[in-house]
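Handout, page 2. Input:
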Amino acid sequence: MATTYPPVSFYFKLSFSDTSGSADASFKEVSGIAMEMSTDDLAEGGVMYKHRIPTAVKYSNLILKRGLVPKNSAVAKWCMDTLTGGFEEAIETKSIVVSLLNEEGDPLQSWSFVNAWPVKWSVSDLNSMNNEIAIESLEFAYSYFESK
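Output:
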């Protein structure tokens, strides 16, 4: 198995727990795979500097972009039900797995986003002067992610 280093970022796949279908796994862009350590400054009495202390890990929202798919797709329905359903029912969470693939299609690196739920849905601007496809953006919050 030949592996090119560094790997290319355009060959990846997604999967959602409890969801199947090629339209729901096809995305053109994934962003927001990030975490950072928050810090607080603590001033010590009589000293001219401050100590920086770690507080908690903060995760970015996961953003997925794809060509606009029919509204009956399972992922689109999950997003619409969550965003328009109010808070009468508990928000359904899913696991989202993003895998970076090698040239044979085998995973080089995977990230599993645990307890993900939709927080934003948008469609790109519609403009009759541009020759572009309509892009749907889905943004998800989650509890944490694990690298596999």
